[in-house]
Amino acid sequence: MINSINRLINFVPEKEMDKDKIDKKDHILDVAERMFSDLGYDGASTRMISGEAGVNMAMLNYYFGSKEGLFLAVFERKIYSFQTLLQNIGNDENMTSWDKLAMCIDKYVDKIIVNNCFQKLIHMEMYMSKRGELSDKITEILMVNVREIGKILDEGVKTGDFLKDIDVQLVIASIFGTKNYIVNTPNISSLILGHDIRDEKFLEEKLKPRIKTYMKRLLKAYLMNDNDYKK
Q1: Residue 9: band (very low, low, confident or very high) from pLDDT cuts 50, 70, 90
Q2: HEC letters along the chain
Q3: How far apart are CA 206 and CA 176, in angstroms?
Q4: Is 140 in contact with 80 (CB distance < 8 Å)?
Q5: Residue that wins the pLDDT comparison between 200 and 73
Q6: pLDDT tens digits for range 139-177
Q7: Taking a C-beta distance cutoff of 8 angstroms, is the pair 139, 121 a contact?
């Protein structure tokens, strides 16, 4: 009887337990993202991360298996959540290919500007690292969203929304490359743009809309017929 009462007192609904697990995993990933971006892959240990997150090593290993597993999970969470958004846009049959691409640009700029911590991590590990197999895995994760943009461009060519001789690969490089240059070379970018790009207010109020307008005007002029562009 006492055991039954104890079970009732300690009973936690399954949905609540699942939510608690998700919350703990997200908390660990938030801490890991920040520490990896500050210290790099080699500088941040799982013991440091578990201590900062206020969880024991057993829990961290249970969720992620290893330091590499935790590192990849940081990337997967960010990239795959955005992939779902891009897929929903790409699958919307009520939108033209240009409307889809324009919306993707808006969402992408919103994501990258508000998440400088993750962008710093990408830059540190992709452009300054020679880690081999781990870098290859990260590259494959990042290519997920590159492919989604490519699908929209290919669709636009097939439907006639875009010119048939566009260079899909260079369009993709232009979208991601503009971000890379601005975010990853802050000193030079600040001089070019005439303002410190590390100023959060400037990023939100000035730079975001400026990048969106620039990218959409640039790509629309390249992708579409002159008559379409004048509409």
Answers
A1: very low
A2: CHHHHHHHHHCCCHHHHHHHHHHHHHHHHHHHHHHHHHHHHHHCCHHHHHHHHCCCHHHHHHHHCCHHHHHHHHHHHHHHHHHHHHHHHHCCCCCCHHHHHHHHHHHHHHHHHHCHHHHHHHHHHHCCCCCCHHHHHHHHHHHHHHHHHHHHHHHHHHHCCCCCCCCHHHHHHHHHHHHHHHHHCHHHHHHHHCCCCCCHHHHHHHHHHHHHHHHHHHHHHHHCCHHHHCC
A3: 19
A4: no
A5: 73
A6: 887 788 899 999 999 999 999 999 999 999 999 999 988
A7: no
CA dihedral (180, 185, 191, 197) positive or negative: positive
pLDDT band per the 50, 70, 90 thresholds, residue 18: low
Locus of tokens 């920040």: 34
Global pTM reads 0.73
Task: Mention every residue, 6+ apart, whose C-beta is less than 8 A from residue 157.
Answer: 163, 164, 166, 168
Quickly count: other Cβ atoms within 10 Å of residue 176's Cβ: 16
- Whether 126 contacts 142, CB under 8 Å: yes
d(CA 80, CA 83): 5
Q: Are 153 and 166 contacting, i.e. CB atoms less than 8 angstroms apart?
A: yes
**pLDDT bracket for residue 49 (50, 70, 90):** very high
- The phi, psi pair for 160, rounded to 5°, reads 90, 5
pLDDT at 141: 79
Residue whose pair of structure tokens reads 């009973």 in the numeric block: 11
